[in-house]
Design goal:
Helix content is 8%, strand content 39%. The protein has one helix and six strands; from the N terminus they run βαβββββ.
């Protein structure tokens, strides 16, 4: 398992719809570029310091973080300031 350090979180990138409402099928890179929702999987040394917790669904800034793939699952390591909101 990947464990972030410092003020970082590990998120699982949410699966995006591969087809738009108008029926256009998106390629793999387009899906990633249009995705900015994920689930917090692990936290660095910030647990209990912010109003987020493991399991929260979050909205984060586009084009940030470091993407990692493990067991065919895409994760993103984000700085805490890249998180915009918790989705309830």
């Amino acid at each position: 398992m990947i464990r972030p350090i410092g003020e970082r979180v590990l998120i699982k990138i949410a699966e995006m719809e591969k087809k738009t409402v108008s029926g256009i099928i998106l390629a793999g890179n387009d899906i990633k570029e249009n995705s900015n929702i994920g689930e917090i999987i692990a936290m660095g040394s910030i647990e209990n310091s912010y109003a987020i917790k493991i399991g929260d669904k979050i909205l984060y800034k586009k084009n940030v973080g470091t993407e990692i793939e493990e067991n065919n699952i895409k994760y993103l390591v984000l700085e805490i300031e890249d998180i915009l909101a918790v989705i309830e």
